[in-house]
Write a structure and sequence with these properties.
Blueprint lengths: L2 H8 L3 H8 L27 E3 L12 E3 L5 H13 L6 H7 L4 H10 L10 H15 L1
Antiparallel strand pairs: 1-2
Helix pairs in contact: 4-5
Protein name: NADH dehydrogenase [ubiquinone] 1 alpha subcomplex assembly factor 4
Organism: Pomatostomus ruficeps
Pfam families: UPF0240
Length: 137
């Protein structure tokens, strides 16, 4: 922090400047070595795609998916088809239709069940409402 040191640092030294002008530096990157795998080359795995089977819901979902995968709309569609017609939409048929593994389809059908919306008749709604009101009083 002393002024003498600051002055010494900022002072030009002509002798050092002349020596610095005589210095020439040339820099080159070393040549790049490519590792030789001994002729072994990994094949480029190109992912196979398939067009989705969306029917009238095609505006709601993607148009192409990788083989072995399904879109959300397809999943809901196949689960609903299986639920409504299990004898027609078997796990085997779904696996073939959507290019899926059979064990994955079996897991999908076992663990993912689409819910159903049930609407109660108006008379039942009134009974439920009045029953709940009686409980509250």
């Amino acid at each position: 922090d002393s002024p003498e040191i600051k002055e010494e640092v900022l002072r030009k030294d002509d002798r050092f400047l002349s020596l610095l002008k005589d210095v020439y530096v040339e820099s080159r990157d070393p040549p790049v070595k490519v590792k030789d795998g001994g002729g072994e080359r990994l094949p480029c795995k190109q992912e196979e795609k398939r067009l989705t089977k969306l029917g009238h819901l095609d505006t709601l979902d993607v148009k192409k998916v990788s083989k072995g995968k399904i879109s959300i709309v397809e999943a809901l569609t196949l689960l609903n088809n299986h639920k409504l017609q299990p004898q027609i939409w078997t796990a085997e048929k779904i696996a073939v239709e959507y290019s899926l593994e059979l064990k994955e389809v079996n897991s999908l059908l076992e663990f993912f069940i689409p819910f159903t919306v049930q609407e109660f008749p108006k008379e039942t709604k009134k009974a439920i409402v009045s029953h709940n009101l009686k409980k509250l009083t």
